């Protein structure tokens, strides 16, 4: 079962954490999936808002998956954690800066990484069971995931108190401290979510909100101010130790469980953040200074060991006497220089893309890259261009100085020709990303030529058609080295919803021609079935209603119905203007049969589909029409065999 459910209605994107047995603790994979969905929806004009919720009663999200961190850290691999935090913090910043409302429903525990997900949106909703906390000092970390921003903005010194003690806030406390916006009884949540998914405005949230019971935390504030106003952890401890109030005793008990180094650094970070330059980027930058060093120089591995590995709850902290020297704090919070956190999207916007082939597919793909902030310069022999794309006068002009050259061309011969023109002018180490559908041999030949030119290469043909290209929901099937695939990944995330790394160069094309052999055959089967239905006097709409929900369903029927006026909008509704041209399908079927011959695979349906499309394009009137125009072809004919 998946750990996360991501789906969308006509108006809303919805992300549901679905790991209730692990209190919805967030894994690295979940983090990347959430980011990809948010990127997609940010560009999708149909999506007005995003709902974030979670399965189970116990927790929205109890934190990050620290077991994963422990394993790698104990093996001496600190890079995994550093990468995880950098990616997680980028996601936290993305939620905070998101251009559309993000509404989170925070039942049960929302802690650590859960705060990073659930407490940076525009509408943070708590209910009766909500318990929110930043308990990181208990495992030797400082509050992170952008939590220090909220703590620095909390009233008075409440941030220092919450950050060092890990105090669990109830719903009213969370509103008081700035971790939540609205209290709404939990039995009203499902109805509210359904309305939001149906297109209701976020104003319904305000109207459903109620006043929670009084905040216990607010009652504690006078004592918090008295004890937490000092310069550092030692001042806080000194005043607490000279007070015999219950508050002082309880607070000392909480502080004595936690890592002294982490607590001292938490206080220092909050002091540095408060002031006119406070921002999410600054908060995350300071948090990352600590987390980057936390395994090697901090108490994190010992903290995780005591909490969840040996479960003895007696961690051996550094500075166990609570005397943390100022130099130790400074060392943990020194700037990281070239390793400093970059919120990578910012880096992506500096990427130069040379886009070659701005046809039916290429133009909307290039426009999506430009919309995401990348600098795109495009070239097409037909002189076409795309929104937001600078027009080049030649392929060489588009490729010179590009970090990534992306091609979307009609066939392998043209790809080879373009590659021989652009590879000599590309920067060493740059990426040539070909998304055309071509023969496996051409993909491999261009991969070799790229290697010779010290350029990375990925063949990544796509599925999803012009609709997917425009909506940024393509599927990419990629061949190339793991490193080159990772270089291409941010572009896949912008232009598509999924990218599968299929293997070595050429593997993407192999997957594509197998997929399209199925597509060609099912489109023919769908068209001939409609023609038969016509002759049997069956209404086309009824035929669609039955088949689209029965065992005859397929992408050709359900998403790209060849009958005009039936099913979702498709080229059939536009007089079969392509879409996906019949000659491109002919090309793909030719590639599948060429490949099948080379490896001696028996593909009779593919061979028959090729023969039919060849006749349609070369002998009949199929050229220039969409490949679904097989339907009028069949309806005009009588039985021939
Ligand atoms: P298209 O014919 O609309 O676009 C190809 C573009 O390449 C044209 O604008 C053409 O002028 C340009 N071109 C040709 N030679 C060139 C050169 N030497 N330099 C620069 N530009 C050149 O085709 P499309 O539908 O956009 O498809 C492009 C690729 O994507 C094909 O390989 C196709 O098989 C594949 N594909 C298409 C679809 C679809 O639904 N259309 C779906 C998946 C994959």
UniProtKB/TrEMBL annotation:
Q: What is its EC number?
A: 1.1.1.31
InterPro entries from the xrefs?
Answer: 3-OH-isobutyrate_DH-rel_CS, 6-PGluconate_DH-like_C_sf, 6PGD_dom2, 6PGDH_NADP-bd, ClpP/crotonase-like_dom_sf, ECH_dom, HIBADH, HIBADH-like_NADP-bd
Q: In which pathway does it act?
A: Amino-acid degradation; L-valine degradation
Name any Gene Ontology BP term: L-valine catabolic process
Residue ranges of the 6-phosphogluconate dehydrogenase NADP-binding domain?
Answer: 352-503
One of the Pfam families matching this protein, by short name: NAD_binding_11
Task: Provide the 3-hydroxyisobutyrate dehydrogenase-like NAD-binding domain boundaries.
Answer: 506-631
Which reaction(s) does its UniProt entry say it catalyses? a (3S)-3-hydroxyacyl-CoA + NAD(+) = a 3-oxoacyl-CoA + NADH + H(+); 3-hydroxy-2-methylpropanoate + NAD(+) = 2-methyl-3-oxopropanoate + NADH + H(+)
Where in the numbering of this chain does the Enoyl-CoA hydratase/isomerase domain appear?
Answer: 13-322
Q: Which domain of life is it from?
A: Bacteria
Mention one GO molecular function. Answer: 3-hydroxyisobutyrate dehydrogenase activity
Q: Which SUPFAM superfamilies match?
A: 6-phosphogluconate dehydrogenase C-terminal domain-like, ClpP/crotonase, NAD(P)-binding Rossmann-fold domains
**Keywords assigned by UniProt, alphabetized:** Branched-chain amino acid catabolism, NAD, Oxidoreductase
Protein name (database record): 3-hydroxyisobutyrate dehydrogenase
């Amino acid at each position: 079962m998946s750990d996360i459910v991501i789906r969308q209605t006509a108006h809303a994107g919805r992300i549901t954490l679905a790991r209730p047995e692990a209190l919805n603790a967030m894994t690295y994979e979940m983090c990347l999936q959430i980011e990809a969905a948010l990127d997609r929806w940010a560009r999708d004009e149909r999506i007005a808002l995003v709902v974030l919720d979670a399965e189970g009663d116990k927790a929205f999200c109890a934190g990050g998956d620290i077991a994963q961190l422990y394993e790698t850290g104990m093996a001496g691999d600190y890079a995994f954690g550093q990468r995880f935090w950098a990616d997680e913090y980028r996601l936290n910043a993305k939620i905070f800066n998101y251009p559309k409302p993000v509404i989170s429903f925070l039942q049960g525990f929302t802690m650590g990484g859960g705060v990073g997900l659930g407490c940076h949106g525009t509408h943070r909703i708590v209910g009766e069971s909500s318990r929110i906390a930043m308990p990181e000092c208990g495992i030797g970390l400082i509050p992170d995931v952008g939590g220090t921003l909220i703590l620095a903005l909390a009233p008075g010194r409440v941030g220092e108190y919450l950050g060092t003690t890990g105090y669990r806030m109830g719903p009213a406390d969370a509103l008081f401290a700035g971790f939540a916006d609205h209290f709404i009884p939990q039995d009203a949540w499902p109805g509210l979510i359904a309305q939001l998914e149906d297109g209701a405005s976020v104003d319904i949230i305000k109207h459903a909100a109620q006043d929670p019971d009084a905040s216990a935390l607010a009652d504690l504030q006078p004592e918090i101010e008295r004890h937490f106003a000092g310069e550092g952890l030692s001042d806080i401890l000194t005043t607490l130790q000279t007070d015999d109030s219950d508050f002082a005793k309880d607070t000392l008990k909480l502080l004595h469980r936690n890592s002294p180094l982490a607590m001292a650094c938490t206080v220092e970070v909050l002091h540095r953040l408060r002031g006119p330059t406070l921002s999410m980027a600054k908060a995350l930058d300071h948090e990352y200074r600590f987390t980057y060093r936390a395994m090697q120089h901090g108490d994190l591995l010992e903290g995780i060991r005591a909490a969840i590995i040996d479960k003895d709850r007696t961690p051996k902290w550094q500075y166990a006497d609570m005397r943390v020297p100022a130099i130790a704090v400074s060392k943990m919070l020194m700037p990281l220089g070239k390793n400093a956190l970059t919120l990578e999207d910012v880096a992506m916007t500096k990427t130069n893309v040379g886009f070659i082939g701005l046809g039916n597919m290429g133009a909307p793909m290039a426009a999506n890259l430009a919309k995401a902030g990348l600098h795109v310069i495009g070239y097409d022999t037909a002189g076409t261009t795309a929104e937001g794309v600078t027009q080049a006068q030649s392929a060489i002009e588009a490729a010179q100085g590009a970090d990534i050259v992306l091609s979307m061309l009609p066939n392998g011969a043209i790809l080879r020709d373009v590659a021989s023109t652009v590879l000599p002018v590309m920067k060493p180490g740059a990426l040539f990303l070909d998304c055309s559908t071509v023969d496996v041999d051409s993909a491999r030949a261009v991969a070799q030529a790229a290697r010779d030119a010290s350029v990375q290469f990925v063949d990544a043909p796509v599925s999803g058609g012009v609709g997917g290209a425009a909506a940024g929901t393509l599927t990419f099937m990629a061949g190339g080295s793991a490193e080159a695939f990772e270089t291409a990944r941010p572009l896949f995330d912008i232009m598509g919803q999924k990218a599968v790394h299929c293997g070595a160069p050429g593997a993407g094309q192999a997957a594509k021609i197998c997929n399209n052999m199925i597509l060609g055959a099912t489109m023919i089967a769908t068209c001939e079935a409609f023609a038969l239905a016509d002759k049997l006097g069956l209404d086309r709409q009824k035929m669609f209603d039955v088949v689209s929900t029965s065992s005859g369903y397929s992408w050709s029927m359900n998403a790209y119905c060849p009958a005009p006026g039936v099913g979702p909008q498709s080229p059939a509704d536009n007089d079969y203007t392509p879409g996906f041209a019949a000659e491109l399908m002919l090309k793909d079927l030719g590639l599948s049969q060429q490949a099948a011959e080379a490896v001696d695979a028996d593909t009779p349906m593919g061979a028959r589909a090729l023969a039919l499309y060849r006749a349609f394009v070369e002998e009949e009137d199929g050229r220039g029409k969409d490949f679904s125009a097989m339907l009028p072809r069949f309806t005009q004919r009588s039985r021939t065999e």
